[in-house]
Amino acid sequence: MKKVEKADAEKYFKLRTIMIFSFILIALLVSFGVVTFAEFFSQFTFMGAPLHYYMGSQGAIVVFIVLLFLNAIISDRLDAKFGVDNATNERIVGGQSMDQ
């Protein structure tokens, strides 16, 4: 594995931390925010159901799954940008595992 410069490591850690807290904030807003303001969201409908009911029964789970995929995609791109992805590691060690 390639040694990462301290400045790059700090920048990578900062971006990952911001990303994780952003996803947690979105998940909390979707799960608890809609319930907290259910009376307000009851005036909107989605797929024939009141929005607060849909989000409580199905929408929050859909949002969580979308967040998981976004996290994986963005993490892979960040890893590639900072050179800590699997392709870079395999290229550095010549395709051989470091465990052998």
TrEMBL record:
<feature type="transmembrane region" description="Helical">
    <location>
        <begin position="20"/>
        <end position="41"/>
    </location>
</feature>
<dbReference type="InterPro" id="IPR019886">
    <property type="entry name" value="Na_symporter_ssu"/>
</dbReference>
<keyword id="KW-1133">Transmembrane helix</keyword>
<dbReference type="Pfam" id="PF13937">
    <property type="entry name" value="DUF4212"/>
</dbReference>
<keyword id="KW-0812">Transmembrane</keyword>
<keyword id="KW-0472">Membrane</keyword>
<feature type="domain" description="Sodium symporter small subunit">
    <location>
        <begin position="10"/>
        <end position="85"/>
    </location>
</feature>
<protein>
    <submittedName>
        <fullName>DUF4212 domain-containing protein</fullName>
    </submittedName>
</protein>
<feature type="transmembrane region" description="Helical">
    <location>
        <begin position="53"/>
        <end position="74"/>
    </location>
</feature>
